[in-house]
Design brief:
The complex is a heterodimer of chains A (about 775) and B (about 140). In chain A, about 35% of the residues lie in helices and about 20% in strands. Chain A is α+β, with helices and mostly antiparallel strands. Chain A folds into 3 domains: about 90 residues, Penicillin-binding protein 1b domain (Penicillin-binding protein 1b fold), CATH 3.30.2060.10; about 180 residues, Biosynthetic peptidoglycan transglycosylase-like (Penicillin binding protein transpeptidase fold); about 290 residues, 3-Layer(aba) Sandwich (Beta-lactamase). In chain A, helix 1 crosses helix 6 and helix 16 crosses helix 21. With about 140 residues, chain B is mainly alpha-helical. Chain B has 2 domains: about 35 residues; about 80 residues, Tetratricopeptide repeat domain (Serine Threonine Protein Phosphatase 5, Tetratricopeptide repeat, Alpha Horseshoe). Chain B is globular and about 40 Å long. The chains are: A alpha+beta (about 775), B mainly alpha (about 140). Chains A and B meet through helix 1, helix 13, strand 27 and strand 28 of A and helix 2, helix 3, helix 4 and helix 6 of B.
Chain lengths: ~775, ~140
């Protein structure tokens, strides 16, 4: 059929329009894709997540530390046990001795090079610490710190980023030999390889061979899902050349080596060869032997199927194929090839590591960094964050919180009991361990930081501190009898004691030790709520508290962390120090960016804190926490306080030894009663944790001008005849009147107290309604 | 055709621009470096006569002392913090922190560290006396501020 010239023109025109439209659409698609690719690829290339480290372990002769604890620390830190310690990050164990080679580490004070150490243990102590072949004694050495996490955009991924120069040639040669022989000559696609794979797949009736170049694999990993669809293949084929167009071969290769998925470690995906090297062999990539390189390169084809631990036979077979290829292409000589073939696939069993094992502590790090750094800085700038976490204590916290909660649930026929723990260094306020729930690995609601609960009697030390500041003594008589207060807007308030009894006239320290509510309410009202609130604020609580009388019994909601801050001031002798979980932040180039320096501020006189601490020791020796007397901690002279909220919904214990302050909370997320008082619940957890933590007994330094005297608890008369265990400390000039000795020095630098014993009874009547 | 598509044809320029941009962004993201304030213009407090050498952190204390005397104050501070982690109640270390703060010109901190040292010094009279001296000097320096 002959077409008319007009019609012919129309067809041509239409064809041209279609072609133009097609080209335009293609151009727009390619442009859009290339923008997207560049955006993502550049983001990936430049992203260096912040790395978070635990505190470095300090070792010295005399340190109370066991061989098992050291080995655990080494395992957590990724050290490998070998027959002979050789190379950084290796150790040997021989009888009571561990020999190890530390890894280089840059501290804010400068680099500390790798050194060989030999540590011998005896009776739970480090007996000798030497260095080098000559076994030269050293007085102190620190291990490079455990890496505990990173702030990567995807929390369940981890990687160690390498630059091109850091990638060993052996890895590159092997990888290219196996995965993409023409990498340096193609433009992202290898048509011949695709055709070959297509042919093989058609012949087999299923996918048996891939023709993807490294570039295509990278595109798949970075931009596409893992489904094997034709559409994905097509996209790969378009995107790979675009990537090649914009980036150099070295950039693509480096990105591939940092990105490729090489295994699964519980809840984290292992990406990149550097991390895989740590995960499978506990070595730096540069230290790998040819057979180990071959295992890793073999894993690219299928990280699960060729997993050296789960499927060692498949892995061995694959590794030998890779080794064969290495030999054929002269990457390995014959001798090296034979030697490599004789090696087992992996000598390193799966070991626990410190990576993201402490999400609750990382929450705190994020919270403390939030004021200084933007989220993007944490995810992309390669910051190195040195923290105060003590993995040994953290381990005890996690283990004992979980076990004791399970025990209590069983005993009380309870479900969903939860808990939180914060442990800090007594003097410096460094956060050593933190648990936000009984399951340490489940991120989410962090009860240590976020659960604000009534603190019950934990508030009482603040009330008694205010009293001591106002001139009360530990012997001041308090009236523990029924009290009823008119509360504006809510009628009468009639608090009761825990045992529903009245105890009459009791010395102040007894009222605290036994946590008497009536005596405390009367005392607090006598002091005025403002004075109590001032004490709570000075102890370190920054948020607003409504001045209701019920606050005297702890009707104020605080997180366990906030409680720790308050008790820290008491534990540290009246010096406030902001609780710190970070010691410093360093840039990727190891320069120090920000130091969180130690700072202290005296908020209370050492004398009143000394008296309060003594009263808190009485809580343990004769009050609500006597359960500790049947514990190995009975000689630690612990000072503490139990706390219980209304209807037994919250169970608290806060207490300190010579070295540590620990705060424990137990309760339910739905705020239902748990049937546990502070001593029946939280104290049990506290005891289980602290008996495992190496800590010295509490021996507060006695300030100048403290005098001791026994007290007759009925007549309140002082007596010189008491034995040391029932003597009480007094600030000079405030000894009980009946026995005051004229010979006692009346130092002028202590505050002149009013006669508290009289004052209280004069004013207390006013509060009766 | 948008500007970004045009630049598809100038990959080199784009790459250079991108690189420069990244450099600028990365520099912008990095937190500012903290510089040490100038040393105190006042007369330095007298050095400690006591040199305790028995505790596990004694070596750190001695290094800190050397750093302090040579004016490497940030280093001295870090060494002392490390020493205090090992021996948290050693009043000499707290006193030395006060010395560091004094030389840094941070007199309020000096006062606080002196008070802390005092609270732990007990009856170690020589230390108590030195500490008191530094405390008075720091208090005097705080006054006019």
């Amino acid at each position: 059929m002959k077409r008319s010239p007009k019609r012919k023109r129309t067809v041509i025109l239409l064809g041209v329009v279609c072609l133009f439209l097609g080209l335009a659409a293609g151009y727009v698609t390619v442009s859009r894709l290339s923008d997207e690719i560049r955006q993502k690829f550049d983001g990936k290339r430049w992203s260096l997540p912040a790395i978070v480290y635990a505190r470095p372990l300090e070792l010295y002769p005399g340190l109370r530390f066991s061989l098992e604890m050291l080995e655990e620390e080494l395992q957590l830190s990724g050290y490998r046990r070998e027959p002979q310690e050789k190379g950084a990050g290796s150790y040997t164990r021989n009888g009571p001795t561990i020999r190890l080679v530390t890894r280089d580490f840059h501290y804010p004070s400068g680099p500390e090079p790798s050194r060989q150490l030999s540590i011998t243990f005896a009776a739970g102590h480090i007996a000798t610490l030497t260095t080098g072949e000559g076994r030269k004694p050293v007085s102190l050495a620190r291990l490079d710190p455990v890496r505990i996490g990173s702030f990567h955009p995807l929390v369940h991924e981890d990687r160690l980023i390498l630059s091109r120069a850091e990638i060993p040639d052996l890895l590159i040669d092997t990888l290219l030999a196996i995965e993409d022989r023409n990498f340096y000559s193609h433009h992202g696609l290898a048509p011949l390889a695709i055709a070959r794979a297509l042919f093989a797949n058609i012949r087999a009736g299923k996918t048996v061979q891939g023709g993807s170049t490294l570039t295509q694999q990278l595109v798949k990993n970075l931009f596409l899902n893992r489904e094997r669809t034709l559409w994905r293949k097509a996209m790969e084929a378009i995107m790979a050349p675009i990537l090649e167009y914009f980036y150099s071969k070295d950039e693509i290769l480096t990105a591939y080596i940092n990105e490729v998925f090489l295994g699964q470690d519980d809840n984290r995906a292992v990406h990149g060869f550097a991390l895989a090297s740590q995960f499978y062999f506990r070595r730096e990539l540069r230290d790998l032997r040819p057979d180990q390189i071959a295992v890793l390169v073999g894993l690219v084809k299928g990280p699960t199927y060729y997993d050296p631990r789960r499927n060692p036979e498949n892995c061995l077979e694959r590794r030998n194929v890779v080794l064969e290829s290495m030999a054929t292409r002269a990457i390995l000589n014959k001798a090296a090839h034979t030697e490599a073939l004789a090696r087992p696939v992996t000598e390193v069993a799966v070991q626990k590591n410190g990576f993201n094992r402490f999400p609750a502590f990382l929450d705190l790090i994020k919270q403390q960094l939030a004021g200084e750094y933007r989220e993007v800085d944490l995810k992309t700038n390669g910051l190195r964050i040195l923290t105060t976490l003590d993995p040994q204590i953290q381990h005890q916290v996690e283990k004992n919180l979980k076990e004791t909660i399970a025990f209590l649930e069983n005993k009380q026929k309870l479900q969903n009991l939860e808990g939180a723990v914060v442990i800090t260094g007594r003097e410096n306020g460094e956060v050593l361990a933190l648990a936000g729930g009984k399951n340490p690995l489940s991120p989410g609601f962090n009860r240590a930081l976020q659960a604000k609960r009534p603190i019950g009697s934990l508030v009482k030390p603040a009330v008694y501190l205010a009293a001591l500041q106002k001139g009360y003594t530990l012997a001041s008589p308090l009236d523990d009898s029924t009290v009823s207060l008119n509360i504006e807007g809510s009628g009468k308030w009639r608090p009761e004691n825990y045992d529903h009894k009245e105890h009459g006239r009791v010395p102040l320290f007894i009222a605290l030790a036994h946590s008497y509510n009536l005596a405390t309410v009367r005392l607090g009202m006598d002091l005025s709520l403002d004075n109590v609130l001032a004490a709570i604020r000075d102890l370190g609580y920054g948020e607003e508290i409504q001045p209701y009388p019920s606050l005297l019994l702890g009707a104020v909601d605080m997180s366990p962390f906030a409680v720790s801050q308050i008790y820290q001031t008491i534990a540290a002798g009246g010096f406030y120090t902001s609780l710190r979980a970070i010691s410093s932040v360093m840039a990727a180039d190891h320069s120090a960016l920000h130091r969180y320096a130690l700072a202290v501020e005296q908020r209370f006189s050492p004398e009143v804190i000394y008296l309060l601490t003594h009263a808190m020791q009485r809580v343990v020796s004769e009050g609500t926490a006597t359960a500790l007397l049947s514990s190995p901690l009975k000689n630690h002279a612990v000072a503490g306080k139990t706390g219980t909220s209304d209807n037994l919904r919250d169970s608290w214990f806060a207490g300190f030894t010579g070295d540590h302050l620990a705060v424990v909370w137990l309760g339910r997320d739905d705020n239902a009663p748990i049937g546990l008082s502070g001593s029946a619940g939280a104290l049990k957890v506290w005891e289980k944790i602290m008996r495992e933590v190496v800590s010295s007994p509490l021996k507060p330094v006695e300030p100048e001008g403290i005098a001791w005297m026994a007290l007759d608890r009925t007549t309140f008369a002082g007596s010189r005849n008491g034995n040391s265990s029932n003597e009480l400390p007094f600030i000079a000039g405030t000894l009980p009147v009946a026995a005051a000795s004229p010979a006692l020095p009346n130092t002028s630098n202590t505050s002149k107290p009013k006669n508290a014993a009289m004052g209280i009874f004069e004013t207390i009547g006013g509060w009766f309604k | 055709m948008n500007v970004r598509s045009v630049s598809l044809f100038f990959p080199l320029c784009r790459r250079l621009a991108l690189f420069l941009l990244m450099v600028v962004i990365l520099n912008g993201c990095a937190a500012p470096r903290k510089t040490e304030p100038p040393s105190s213009p006042l007369i330095s407090p007298p050095p400690l006569e006591y040199k305790p050498v028995t505790g596990p952190a004694a070596a750190l204390y001695q290094d800190a002392d050397i750093a302090l005397q040579s004016g490497r104050l940030a280093e001295a501070e870090m060494l002392l913090e490390r020493a205090l982690r090992i021996e948290p109640r050693n009043p000499y270390y707290w006193h030395s922190m006060a010395q560091v703060k004094y030389r840094q010109g941070k007199y309020r901190d000096t006062v606080q560290f002196c008070l802390k040292a005092e609270s732990l010094a007990g009856k170690q009279s020589q230390l108590v006396a030195r500490n008191k001296e530094l405390l008075q000097q720091a208090k005097k320096a705080v006054q006019p501020q």
